[in-house]
Amino acid sequence: MSVDQATVRRIAHLARIAVTDEEVPHLQGELNAILAFVDQLNEVDVTHVEPMTSVTPMAMKKRQDVVTDGGIPDLIVANAPEREGHFFAVPKVVE
Predict the structure, then answer these.
(1) Is the dihedral of CA 50, 53, 56, 60 positive or negative?
(2) pLDDT given for residue 37 in this prediction
């Protein structure tokens, strides 16, 4: 795929970037070089490569998706100005 000068101007307009007529040929060359590199990357065979989360092998840490009180409800409300049991007490804001 090749980018022409009209496409460079359209991309600049869509990106809200002010581009002078002198800058267009330079940007055209850079965009064409980027697209050529992407084409080169598309030639790499990755059919037997598994997705990775890191460059070092590691297992994802998993935990049960359960609702708990955190095990420390008294510590959570310890500095609350007002509380009722393990809950924060706040003034009514809706009439």
Answers:
(1) negative
(2) 95
- The verdict on residue 91 lying in a domain is no
Question: Tokens in use for 15?
Answer: 């990106």
pLDDT value for 67: 86
Domain of 36?
5-43
Position 65 in a domain: no
**Would residue 16 count as lying in a domain?**
yes
User: Residue 17, class by beta-carbon neighbours within 10 Å (0-12 exposed, 13-18 middle, 19+ buried)?
Assistant: exposed
User: Strand, helix or coil at 7?
Assistant: helix
In 10 A of CB 13, how many CB atoms? 11
